[in-house]
C-alpha cells in the first residue's frame, strides 16, 4: 500500500467486489440464474459473472438496468463522516 495510488486502487476493487456481491445475493435470493438476470438486464452471462466476481466496475447505466430487471430502485448516496479507506 506504499505505492502511489495503491490505496485508491484497493478501494475501487473493494467497491466493485461489494457491488457484485450485492447483485449476486439479490439474484440468488430470487432463485435466478446468471443467464436469466443477464438477459433481463441486456447483458451477457459472462459479463454478469465478471461483475458479480468483482472483476469489473459497473456504470450507473448498467446498475440501473439491473435494478429494473429486479423491479427494484437503484439508490446512490453520499455518506458523510465515513472515509473511503
TrEMBL record:
Any one GO MF annotation of this record: DNA-binding transcription factor activity
Transmembrane segments: none
Keyword GTP-binding in record: no
Residues of the HTH cro/C1-type domain: 23-77
Keywords: DNA-binding
Pfam families, per the entry: HTH_31 (PF13560)
PROSITE patterns: HTH_CROC1 (PS50943)
Keyword Amino-acid biosynthesis carried by entry: no
A GO term from the CC aspect: cytosol
SMART domains per record: HTH_XRE
Name listed for the protein in its UniProt record: XRE family transcriptional regulator
Taxonomic lineage: Bacteria, Bacillati, Actinomycetota, Actinomycetes, Propionibacteriales
Amino acid at each position: 500500500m506504499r505505492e502511489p495510488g495503491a490505496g485508491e486502487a484497493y478501494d475501487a476493487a473493494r467497491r466493485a467486489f461489494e457491488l457484485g456481491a450485492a447483485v449476486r445475493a439479490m439474484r440468488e435470493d430470487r432463485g435466478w440464474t446468471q443467464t436469466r438476470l443477464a438477459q433481463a438486464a441486456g447483458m451477457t452471462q459472462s459479463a454478469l459473472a465478471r461483475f458479480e466476481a468483482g472483476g469489473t466496475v459497473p456504470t450507473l447505466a448498467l446498475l440501473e438496468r439491473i435494478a429494473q430487471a429486479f423491479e427494484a430502485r437503484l439508490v446512490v448516496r453520499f455518506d458523510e463522516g465515513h472515509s473511503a479507506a
